[in-house]
Design a protein that fits this description.
- The protein is an alpha+beta fold.
- It has 6 helices and 8 strands, in the order αβββββββαααβαα.
- Strand 6 and strand 7 form a beta hairpin.
- Helix 3 packs across helix 4.
């Protein structure tokens, strides 16, 4: 009898412990707890701590569903998006969100994060196509990209709120041209650069020809001026020489004739010279004998005679 009572007591204690264990639940800082009773949401606990609930979860009395309180992220990869001018981009993007309304999140997707992200992916895909489709080819590669992401985030906002979700941020990881568009773009850029290079070369050739013509004209002008000045100086020198020679000839014609003949002999007669001339040629005027009747008198400088008398007793 006592053993049965002991067993009953232990069973009662076990039941009490089970009931107590099932009556409490813990919420950590990374979670939010939705308390559901017979399929209806009773309350939401968002602050960390220990909370009480009805223990009979096996009969669906009070059941706790946990949802994340942190910022979450999902990605979209290799989206083929057409822009306004008909070309295509390959886009990788991601969105950051958090569950800010757990009750609505439970009602919209039964608290299933996978289901929620599936709907968000469809919404983000549609928003990206709409925003890119309103813009030209270069918009996503320019400073306009930031405003495009803000527009995408705004398009997602209302639909995300219906799911109990707040969109924190939207970003594009990659925006690349499709292979066919890349090839066309490369060919167009190559043609533009070649045309630009040819224009630069043509401009350089034009400038070179202009500078070469200016330099040639300056050379002609400088050369002409130099030749003009040289002719003037040469004429002045010849005139001055003639005046000097004329003055010298006027002072002593015999000496001047003798001097000119000596210079002619020096220039013409040398070791290898061979001359065939008549002995009576005027060229040999000063080669004659001093006893000859035809020979001119040799040149002798004028010397004044010293008439001073010598002192007595000198020899």
């Amino acid at each position: 009898m006592s053993s049965n009572r002991l067993l009953a007591t232990l069973a009662a204690i076990g039941v009490i412990l089970v009931v107590l264990y099932g009556s409490f639940f813990v919420v950590n800082p990374r979670q939010q707890a939705i308390v559901i009773r017979f399929g209806e949401i009773q309350r939401v606990e968002s602050e960390p701590g220990i909370y009480f609930k009805l223990p009979f979860s096996f009969i669906d009395a009070d059941r706790v569903q946990y949802v994340s309180k942190q910022d979450l992220r999902f990605d979209l990869s290799d989206l083929r998006i057409q822009v306004a001018d008909g070309k295509f981009y390959i886009v990788d993007a991601f969105a950051v969100y958090n569950i800010n309304d757990p009750e609505r999140f439970r009602e919209a997707v039964s608290g299933d994060r996978t289901e929620a992200e599936g709907q968000l992916r469809s919404l983000l895909d549609s928003a990206l196509r709409r925003v890119y489709g309103l813009r030209g080819f270069q918009a996503a590669l320019s400073f306009e990209r930031a405003s495009m992401m803000e527009e995408v985030q705004e398009l997602l906002r209302n639909d995300a709120e219906k799911l109990g979700i707040k969109i924190v941020d939207v970003r594009v990881l990659r925006t690349d041209l499709t292979p066919e568009v890349s090839e066309d773009t490369y060919s167009r850029m190559k043609s533009e650069r070649l045309a630009e290079a040819e224009a630069i070369r043509a401009n350089g050739r034009e400038q070179a020809e202009t500078r070469r013509a200016v330099a040639d004209r300056q050379v002609v002008e400088i050369t002409s001026q130099a030749e003009k000045e040289a002719e003037i100086l040469r004429g002045e020198g010849d005139g001055q020489r003639n005046r000097i020679l004329g003055d010298a000839y006027g002072r002593d014609p015999a000496f001047f004739a003798f001097y000119r003949s000596m210079n002619a002999y020096k220039d013409v007669i040398n070791d290898n010279a061979t001359m065939v001339l008549s002995p009576n040629s005027e060229f040999f005027e000063y080669f004659g004998s001093s006893g000859s009747d035809n020979a001119p008198a040799p040149f002798a400088p004028d010397v004044e005679e010293d008439t001073t008398e010598a002192p007595a007793g000198s020899n």
